[in-house]
Amino acid sequence: GNLGACHVRLENPAHPVRYRGVVCSMKENFGFIERADVVKEIFFHFSEAKSLKEELKLGDDVEFIIQTRNGKEVACNITKLPPGSIVFEEINDEIMKGQVLKPLERGNAARHQSDPLPGRIRYRAPDYSEVEVPFGDKDQKGDFTL
């Protein structure tokens, strides 16, 4: 016959990883969070923030876990963080000179690009080490030819 398990219990349950982000758009009963760990947005339903005393607002810093539903990642168990908890990037006022290693694609190739920061620049840091940084369409101040 067939064997089956009964009285199953999880030993040493893993704590799910909590991610951070900022609420970037909201509709009637759902919205999107801009993730702090990767350059992409994740869907959430308002019911996933039901433990909050007040409703989520645009620009709120939040923490959440990720679950897969219908083959898509969604934010769940959403909690608010204190304002200013999420810093996406720090912009240095100092102007650096560098070399474009990989320019941005133009035309059809750019539309099929999955990496939001596909360009690469190399510059020499104050300690004389070489540093490579990615850049995207929004970073570029104009069109240039190499």
From TrEMBL:
Keyword annotations: Cytoplasm, Repeat, RNA-binding
Keyword hit for RNA-binding: yes
InterPro entries membership: CSD, CSP_DNA-bd, NA-bd_OB-fold
Alphabetized Pfam families for the sequence: CSD
Keyword Repeat: yes
GO cellular component, one term: cytoplasm
Subcellular location: Cytoplasm
CDD domains: CSP_CDS (cd04458)
GO molecular function: RNA binding
Gene3D superfamilies according to UniProt: Nucleic acid-binding proteins
Positions of the CSD domain: 18-80
Family according to the record: Belongs to the UNR family.
Protein's UniProt name: CSD domain-containing protein
Source species of the chain: Bracon brevicornis
